[in-house]
Design a protein that fits this description.
The complex is a heterodimer of chains A (382) and B (277). Chain A is of the alpha+beta class. In chain A, 26% of the residues lie in helices and 31% in strands. The two termini of chain A are 26 Å apart. In chain B, helix 1 packs across helix 13, helix 2 packs across helix 13 and helix 3 packs across helix 7. The chains are: A alpha+beta (382), B mainly alpha (277).
Chain lengths: 382, 277
């Protein structure tokens, strides 16, 4: 199937006095799976609705496969939308829900009438072809046994599959999904996530997926676009995003559950003074600004108290997390940190132990107080 | 039954309800019995008239032969049906637009609808009468139907029903290729079905029983509706003074409404509580 590429060019949107979106530019390649990730209220759903044509942008353009979409009605944009609430037609059976986009597009209003429609030449042929495609889709999504039911008689996961079926059945060139997994329970969410990945692999349709769950974004996407406060902060492959967050907001949002942060003065000679020790952070070289040092729990280790270069800390709490454990420590300076170490090693630790915290300087980040990090661009097309 | 209520208070509340029911039912009971009793024996001093077969044949025979009662009822049926179909045809799209579409002037239009609810029919009677007279429509179905086809009550009722309908379903419909009108007919109408049924009952009862408007615009007996026909029977034809025949006419005119209500009762009550199915 021919997928389309999508160009989002300088999109802006205001609701009253609030800038919901500001200057969003994003290019999505044909067949690519891109996730819009951000906290609730950041504007990611609004952006999706603008792409679908359900919302009008105040500025900027959307183009798909080189065709400008700004003046095109939602139904003519050749894209399908999956809603968080599923948005099924409550009075129609599963079969009729899935068939609805085909019936509305391919039959004339006369042919849709119950009795007269059946007598019109050509209508029977077209109705049979619609039936055939509904059956294919329902087979793909394992909905065959449910075709006669109403949505109210289905579970959340089944409703979600019907919503996917209704979106897939007319083979759109672009899929838009607005938190389609948010209303499912944890186990079903992971299962359905797998289904979506499988369907994307089979159909190779360009897909834009909105979520606030960074694990979901990482699991599904070719690239992730992180949005904060209506601004696109970073677009990168999940692994790059994990390694090289562009600013503190992004780093915090992607560091679940914890991110260690420490406000630091301007580096002196390329080193940051933390307590009594100097730590060399590659990022901070030559920046000359005060800022924040941040590192993930897994990039800190606990050593002996007098280990050279280590920050003296005291253990306050140990939280087991399966094969690893999170160790919460207080530094002398009053700051709190978390280190992720193996559960094996954590067993020998006790609350109140005095230890030294060492930071993997290669993997820690320095965010100058005036905004983004200075470094080589790993974010790909933006 | 509310749990924890003592049996004595239950007896009292039932007694009150039964008394009320008797008071309400009594006139209808009297009407039915009187319609079956010979004219001379109706007012013989007893509380309820005593039916006889001879009286029944006499009264119903007179009611059906002295005036074209079946014609009146057919008129009433055509008028009620035409009014209802047009009211729904207009109110569903209007209610949908007021509930779910944003366009300049919508709040003012909604206020207009609410003001319309407050307006008694007597106020615009004269201008409407003049308009119908000038266009030569008096004594026609059009005169009986046209003034009623825009029901602000229906628009408001449907609007209230539609407001709670999830917007995402409408967005999905727009992407699936529904036009705004097909959304109104193919999605909103089925969703509002309980409201449509209860409105239908209100509308049919009101217009079947309406005496005021037919009296204003109809003088030709051929165009009379059922209630106007009964009034005409009482004043003019042989019915004048014949209470038994008049009551027989009353029974015949009321019966279809009662049958209709019993048929729709389940939907009607569901519509009153405005529950979704």
């Amino acid at each position: 199937m021919a997928a389309l590429d999508l160009h989002i060019d300088d999109i802006g949107k205001r609701f009253g006095a609030i800038d919901v979106l500001r200057g969003i530019c994003l290019r999505v390649a044909a067949g690519e799976f891109v996730t819009l990730l951000g906290p609730s209220g950041c504007g990611k759903s609004t952006l999706l609705r603008i792409i679908a044509g359900l919302e009008r942008a105040d500025q900027g353009h959307v183009r798909a496969g080189g065709r400008g979409l700004d003046a095109v009605a939602p139904k003519d944009r050749d894209l399908a939308f999956v809603f968080q609430s599923y948005a099924l037609y409550p009075h129609l059976s599963v079969h009729d829900n899935i068939a609805a986009p085909l019936v509305m597009r391919e039959l004339s209003s006369l042919e849709r009438l119950p009795v007269i429609g059946a007598l019109l030449p050509g209508a029977i042929q077209r109705k049979r072809s619609i039936q055939e495609r509904v059956r294919q889709t329902s087979g793909l999504l394992k909905l065959d046994a449910l075709l006669e039911r109403r949505p109210s008689a289905l579970s959340g996961g089944q409703r979600q599959r019907v919503a996917l079926g209704r979106a897939m059945v007319r083979k759109p060139k672009i899929f838009l999904m607005d938190e389609p997994l948010a209303n499912l329970d944890a186990a079903l969410r992971i299962h359905t996530r797998g289904e979506i990945a499988r369907l994307h692999k089979e159909m190779e349709t360009t897909t834009i997926f909105v979520t606030h769950d960074q694990a979901e974004a990482a699991a599904l996407s070719d690239r992730v676009a992180v949005i904060f406060g209506g601004e696109l902060r970073q677009v990168a492959a999940p692994a790059d995003l994990y390694r090289e967050p562009v600013d503190l907001d992004v780093a915090r949002f992607l560091a679940q559950p914890f991110l260690n942060e420490l406000a630091v003065a301007a580096p002196i000679g390329g080193g940051l003074m933390i307590g009594g020790s100097r730590i060399i952070i590659r990022d901070a070289l030559g920046s000359g600004l005060a800022g924040t040092l941040a590192f993930r729990p897994e990039h800190a280790t606990l050593a002996e108290k007098d280990h050279p270069g280590a920050l003296p800390v005291r253990v306050t709490r140990i939280e087991q997390a399966g094969i690893d454990a999170h160790v919460f420590v207080d530094a002398e300076a009053g700051a709190q940190f978390v280190a992720r170490i193996s559960a094996e090693r954590a067993r020998s630790l006790r609350d109140g132990d005095n230890l030294g915290l060492t930071i993997d300087a290669e993997k820690a980040w320095f965010f100058p107080s005036n905004g983004s990090r200075q470094r080589g661009d790993h974010s790909g097309a933006a | 039954m509310i749990r924890g209520q003592s049996s004595s208070s239950r007896i009292v509340s039932h007694a009150v309800l039964v008394t009320g029911a008797i008071i309400i039912v009594f006139p209808f009971l009297w009407m039915i019995l009187a319609s079956l009793t010979p004219q001379s024996e109706i007012f013989d001093g007893s509380l309820l008239p005593t039916p006889t077969l001879h009286g029944a044949i006499d009264n119903y025979g007179t009611a059906l032969s002295a005036i074209p009662l079946l014609r009146f009822m057919a008129n009433g049926f055509v008028v009620c049906l035409a009014i209802l179909v047009l009211q729904i045809a207009i109110a569903i799209p209007c209610g949908y637009a007021l509930a779910k579409l944003s366009f300049p002037g919508r709040p003012i239009l909604l206020v207009g609808v609410l003001l319309g609810l407050l307006m008694p029919v007597q106020i615009p009677t004269i201008p409407i009468y003049i308009a119908l007279a000038k266009s030569g429509l008096l004594d026609s179905y059009a005169a009986l139907v046209l003034p009623w086809i825009i029901s602000v009550f229906a628009i408001f009722l449907f609007r209230q029903f539609f407001v709670t309908f999830p917007d995402e379903v409408l967005d999905a419909a727009r992407l699936d290729g529904f036009s705004e009108l097909s959304i109104a007919w193919r999605i909103m109408l089925p969703a509002a079905w309980p409201a449509v049924v209860s409105f239908s009952i209100f509308s049919i009862v009101a217009h079947w029983n309406d005496l005021y408007w037919p009296m204003v615009v109809i003088t030709n007996p051929d165009m009379m509706t059922a209630s106007l026909g009964i009034a005409y029977f009482r004043q003019a034809g042989e019915g004048a003074g014949n209470v038994g025949a008049l009551m027989a006419g009353g029974v015949l005119v009321t019966a279809p409404l009662v049958a209709f209500f019993l048929l729709m009762q389940k939907h009607f009550i569901r519509g009153l509580v405005l529950g979704r199915h």
